[in-house]
Amino acid sequence: MANFQKLTPRSEDYSKWYNELVVKADLAEQSAVRGCMVIKPYGYAIWETIQSELDRRFKEQGVKNAYFPLLIPKSFLSREAEHVEGFAKECAVVTHHRLMNDPNGKGVVVDPNAKLEEELIIRPTSETIIWSTYKNWISSYRDLPILCNQWCNVMRWEMRTRLFLRTAEFLWQEGHTAHATKEEAEDYARNMLDVYADFAENVMAMPVIKGVKSPNERFAGALNTYCIEAMMQDGKALQAGTSHFLGQNFAKSFEVQFLSKENKYEYVWATSWGVSTRLMGALIMTHSDDNGLVLPPKLAPIQVVIVPIFKKEDDLALLMEKLNPIADNLKKMGIRVQVDTSDKATPGYKFADYELKGVPVRLAMGARDLQNGTIEIARRDTMTKETIAIEGIEDVIKNLLDEIQQNCFNKALAYRTANIKECDDYEVFKKEITKGGFLLCHWDGTPETEEKIKEETKATIRCIPLEALPGYKEEPGKCMVTGKPSAKRVVFAISY
């Protein structure tokens, strides 16, 4: 059972609230390895649902899963200059392949005679190892496209970590595709962005802005990086997914060519795209409240919990005669149900536990309910409850889960809408950006201006929107900093 010391209110310390909630809701905890986390069973159950929902969507796009090595030869990272520059400071390096007993009897030490001829990098991302492999798979246009994805872990040596949001090791999926034409590759990168946006909004109930990154914010080695950006409850932005058009950079670095229909050798065009366990952080910070997690039903490991209220075993047996058929019927409808008949805690303690863990719907029945043919139904998103007739409860619950899912999205969308503003004056911008939220501003398109804004305010261009945001027009204007022409507004925010 959970620890019910109250969470720090979000209004008092949002960061502390988040850290406490991750631990108290049994999602994850710090590990013995600095910067790495242990994802606990309840947290991993949410990640598994994220995986299954995304995996199904990927396969609908023709993607097949594969697995590539964890270790990458150091020389591979040297082949794409921009790529290695982007990741060099985050790489963990394997230098030896064996341990030995310490001659002084102090445990084990690295065997100095077991040094590797070439150091190996624990993958920070897999473009290099995958494109060295694709060279063996591709010789003709008939071999294309290749649409591969892998679910795996990666290592990026982060100095300042926070559970789910930024850890040295994290779980993710990374898709890597190879195409015969530029148009096909870029279309596929955009298509996968749409897949991510659909998942974020319709499964996570998290509204996102689809956009393209500025050159300063692109993935190392990409020609274009497309992204979905979400607003958290503290007004900060969180990059929830990216899809990269890599052009021919990696194909040229690893000499991956194909014989075209015109009988000419050409370099392959590439994409890569990924989301990570950072989505767990996004889920928490989009919906949860001072009482604990609030989970959209589509991602909740337990969608409905049933709690019989009893004092004696005989009372429990009578209650379960009514409750077991309800649980069975809900399971047949594909609803994830848990029946809690334990006597280790009071009903009130159980209620608080399931509220903390964000279970969308709770059913409770006691002796009086049994006599009256009623049952208490509580919903987590609004913290409301009512007593209703037990007959037809299954259909009521099915409809209620749909309603909660939509309400989670509507609430998050209303918050985002209320915290997006246009801004044309840089001095006003400096004050407004500290309050959180997204500011839509004109920018002259230069990396120098972008860097100046970042240095002076800590705000970055989260994306250049691919489509007009509701209620805002895409109009040319003048950069708020330099006064130079600007084609349209971009999204600025302080981000995680």
Characteristic key phrases:
about 500 residues, alpha+beta, BirA Bifunctional Protein, domain 2, Rossmann fold, Translation Initiation Factor IF3, 3 domains, eleven-stranded mixed β-sheet, five-stranded mixed β-sheet, 14 helices, 27 strands, about 25% strand, globular
Q: What is the molecular shape?
A: globular
CATH architecture of the largest domain: 2-Layer Sandwich
Percent helix range: 25-40%
Mean pLDDT: 96
In which order are the strands of the major sheet placed?
A: 3-9-10-16-13-12-11-24-27-23-22
Rounded to an integer, what's the Rg over CA atoms? Answer: 26 Å
CATH topology of the largest domain: BirA Bifunctional Protein, domain 2
Word description of this protein:
This protein folds into three domains: 26-70 and 124-287, 2-Layer Sandwich (BirA Bifunctional Protein, domain 2); 300-407, 3-Layer(aba) Sandwich (Rossmann fold); 420-493, 2-Layer Sandwich (Translation Initiation Factor IF3), CATH 3.30.110.30. 34% of the residues lie in helices and 27% in strands. The chain contains 14 helices and 27 strands. The strands form seven sheets. The chain has an eleven-stranded mixed β-sheet, with helices on both faces. Strand 20 and strand 21 form a beta hairpin. Helix 2 (41-60) crosses helix 6. The longest helix has 26 residues, at 393-418. It is globular, with a radius of gyration of 26 Å. The relative contact order is 0.11. The mean pLDDT is 96.
Write the layout of secondary structure elements.
Elements (H helix, E strand, L loop, with lengths): L13 H11 L3 E3 L6 E3 L1 H20 L3 E2 L5 E3 H4 L3 H7 L4 E5 L2 E3 L6 E3 L4 E8 L4 H11 L8 E10 L13 E11 L2 H21 L6 E4 L11 E8 L5 E11 L1 H5 L3 E3 L5 E3 L1 E8 L1 H10 L16 E5 L4 H20 L4 E3 L7 H10 L4 E5 L1 H6 L1 E6 L4 E6 L3 H26 L1 E3 L3 H7 L5 E5 L4 H11 L2 E6 L11 E2 L6 E2 L2 E5 L3
Parallel strand pairs: 3-9, 17-18, 17-19, 22-23
Antiparallel strand pairs: 1-2, 4-8, 5-8, 6-7, 9-10, 10-16, 11-12, 11-24, 12-13, 13-16, 14-15, 19-20, 20-21, 23-27, 24-27, 25-26
Helix pairs in contact: 2-6
